[in-house]
Amino acid sequence: MSTASAPVADAVGRRSVVPPAAGRSLWRAAAWTGGVAAIVCGVVAIAVVAVCWLPASGPSGNATSAVRAGVLAFLAGLHGGVTVDGLSAAFVPLGMTLLIGLVAWRAGAGLANVADELDECRPGVLLRAGAAQAAAFAVVCGIAAAFGGLGTSSVSVPRAVLASLLLFGVTGTVAFVRWSVLGDDLADALPAWAAPASRAAAVGVLGYLAAGAVLVAGSLVAHRDRVETLSAQVGGGWSGLPILLLGVLAAPNATIAGAAYLAGPGFGLGAGNHVWLLGAAHGVLPAFPLLGAAPDGAGAAWGVWLLASIAFLFAGGCVARVVAVARAGALARLRLTGIAAAVAAGAGVVLGWQAGGGIGAGRLAAFGPSPWQLGLALGALCGVGGTCCLAIAALCQLLRARRRPAAVEATTGPAAVLRTALAAAAATLAERRADDDDPADDDDPAADDDPADDDPADDDDPAAEHDREVADDSAVEDDVATELPTPGKRSA
């Protein structure tokens, strides 16, 4: 049984995802988890649209339109594009895509649990089961696209199938591989630099995304008057609920746009409108409250520049930390930093592609950051920041190494050894004088009555007195010699 998937099976439990009848066969489980994942996403979208639309539409609204609108919303979340009155709408609130991805991830983990329960460890069978699960998800999405049109709005069936396969592949299939024995096989097949480079790129990109989220939150607070004005224009009460929901679902798009703003390229707000650190040029924007946080003026404030600097240092420090732990040696670390920068650039391209898009070919044709510009910026900043932090760490280590021999020399040099030996000799002589002058010996009757001390031969014998003095001098010389280093050991 796979040791990688056992903890997940214990923690999650396959019964919560796969019923007993489907769990007896890996193929039935693949079809069940893939198809039901798409159905669950569609049902949730229909429920949300019905709650937002039917009360606001009044008597003119009907349940059939709400169902079709919910299906269109689910298909739009796949990022396959929706056609409205003959115009392509490629911009999608990423919150919808993330929710679909979470459901697909859970489906992939559930299939891995079934494979673990059935003790299925053959890689070929597991790969085919994962492909069958993704195909089941795509089939349901294709059927929904064929029957989910609403008036002049529709979704192309081939694009829906392709987008669903891609989305499920990077979420559900990855989860299935991760929690099955395929994860162990893949880890053994990947090169040694793959895991640390991916971790370093991930922490660098996540650092910029966190800074982008802070920027968006701060901008909403700073421009709250403008945001409130736009909210009042779209209406209040129940009719404003769909706009509020879209704003919440578009928060990931705003976060990526904030990261692009701090990284340098900025982002677009329609044809001819661009915002970046050195300036902002935009005309009339749609009455969407979230757009009230868009900066304006000649350039960014000092606080934004400070946040951009912190994001650069934080991302570079995280990359350097991961690289330093994974590799030893300057060249190996620089090589791994370059690979991590390339991975970060690829992640930036994907993020820019997902966060951007447009509606039609007019004023709203371009929204969000440029994918290739964001990718180049993130790759360069993570690479340069990581390299600088590694260089600073190496310089500090070199300075510490140079100070250490000086400190050792101060405690082990000839002068220090001589001072130590003289101090020890002085302490020994002082101790012997204290013993000679101890009044307890003078008051001790036993000592006074010792026949050996009263031996007249010793008192009158000059040779015996000379032997005692020689013995005392030899003892002092021995004490001094023990404090002096032996030849050849000072350098140690």
Task: Write structural notes for this entry.
The protein is mostly helical. It folds into three domains: 6-189, no CATH class; 194-402, no CATH class; 413-483, no CATH class. It is 72% helix and 4% strand. The chain is built from 20 helices and seven strands. It has helices at residues 6-12, 20-23, 26-57, 63-77, 94-117, 123-147, 157-179, 181-189, 194-222, 224-233, 241-249, 251-263, 302-326, 330-355, 371-412, 414-436, 439-443, 445-448, 456-460, 462-483, and strands at 82-84, 87-89, 153-154, 267-269, 274-276, 279-281, 367-368. The strands form two sheets. A four-stranded antiparallel sheet has the order 6-5-4-7, covered by helices on one side. A hairpin with a 4-residue loop joins strand 4 and strand 5 (274-276). Helix 12 packs across helix 14. The longest helix is centred in the last third of the chain and has 42 residues, at 371-412. The two termini are 55 Å apart.
How many separate domains? 3
Percent helix range: over 70%
Largest sheet: 4 strands, antiparallel
Structural class: mainly alpha
How are strands sequenced across the largest beta sheet? 6-5-4-7
Number of strands: 7
> Radius of gyration from the CA trace?
39 Å
